[in-house]
Amino acid sequence: MGENHRVFIDNPSLNDSQCFDDDGRLKRTGTFWTASAHIITAVIGSGVLSLAWAIAQLGWIAGPAVMLLFSIITFYTSCLLTDCYRTGDPVSGKRNYTYTQAVGSLLGGYKVKVCGFIQYVNLFGVSIGYTIAASISMMAIKRSNCFHNSGGKNPCHMSSSPYMMMFGVAEILLSQIPDFDQIWWLSILAAVMSFTYSGIGLALGIAKVIGIGTFRGSLTGISLGTVTPAQKIWRSFRALGDIAFAYSFSMILIEIQDTVKSPPAEAKTMKKATKLSIAITTAFYMLCGCMGYASFGDFAPDNLLTGFGFYNPFWLLDIANAAIVIHLVGAYQVFCQPIFTFVEKWASQRWPESKTITKELKIPMPIRGFRPYKLNLFRLVWRTAFVMLTTVISMLLPFFGDVVGILGAFGFWPLTVYFPVEMYIEQKKISKWSSRWICLKMLSMGCLMISILAGTGSIAGVILDLKVYKPFKTTY
């Protein structure tokens, strides 16, 4: 920004709309297509793996209906959020570069701190969920090969703890890379891996349905007898959280919008991009979730790919699980970067004279052509401690489905509904107690109730799991 600003002033020949936008930054080049691709990449992730289980709890009627409802709510509130990219005039108003900046610009006060807290807690939770999911996939690869090598005689029970520790060691090393979030190819790799394992899961589901010659499942979901009446209620509530987690991308929508060029107005482009991307995502989710439920019926697993664990071709499942691990190794770092940056910036401002926090040691690299590595002692200790904490919590609570449900419930209402609705009301100066104001508030309250039910169901699931799970001892 600093260099660009100097060029903007010192070179009058470049001082025109062909080089810079109205905020003095280099011209944005994003389009409807690039914005759609970014949204699809952000939405389709590990959340897709739990959708078959979610539909199995709700049944053939309520399952797809609830998924469609979440897609409509997410689309509508995303459209409200796009109108908050600029404060004031939708064409020439002040730009908000991040979600939190939009909250600060339009709502201000304590709500900015609340929003930041929710975002950081959600990101912390995602890092735990990713650690659990990666360990499940590593175990699936090991068990699949063990099972086939023994000819099906060895049940291949194992603990998830060593695999979580392996994942944690990898993340400690990667967390020490400065500016990890600037590695441009990371998003491309994540997108390829996401579609790889999701596509394989969908293909296997279709193949299994063709093989058995019928669609399993029922109109009302998992049957009593398989679970108790209380378990059915809690599981149905948790299913709402799992589906909500699959649609959680609102916190980065403003950042994607900040890449879009104008004219036309950025909000207009983003509304079209959101409509297309959510339509594609929902169709893909419907296929994955419904085919998974059709394949397994009441016994649909928390993680779709683990349900195919001992089926042939097992090498294809190994590829899918390896794709999950590769995706999550990078995704963990991307989601943790805002937390790392926030803590390190706060520490440098709090203790500006401390050499432990500010000094960087240049370590020569043994490979010619590589720049010296900049080692910062505070970064080394703090980031290592963070990864160790998320790993230990994952080892204590290795319940992928329940953690996903809690994350979906915790993040859905505030980040996807409440703040977009409140900012939109402030942006458009909607009169209190007007029909539109009442409708928006009713939408927000309704979604709050959904989040509370989803959170309650997920927490109940964790409590039930802990009754039979013994940390560091239980094997799968």
From TrEMBL:
Superkingdom classification of source: Eukaryota
GO cellular component terms listed in the entry, alphabetical order: plasma membrane
A single GO molecular function term of this UniProt record: symporter activity
Location in the cell: Cell membrane
Coarse class of the protein's main subcellular location: membrane
Listed GO biological process terms: amino acid transport
The protein's name: Amino acid transporter transmembrane domain-containing protein
Boundaries of every Amino acid transporter transmembrane domain copy: 28-463
Keywords on record: Amino-acid transport, Cell membrane, Membrane, Symport, Transmembrane, Transmembrane helix, Transport
Family statement drawn from the similarity comment of this UniProt entry: Belongs to the amino acid/polyamine transporter 2 family. Amino acid/auxin permease (AAAP) (TC 2.A.18.2) subfamily.
Spans traversing the lipid bilayer: 32-55, 61-85, 120-141, 183-207, 276-294, 314-335, 380-397, 403-421, 442-464
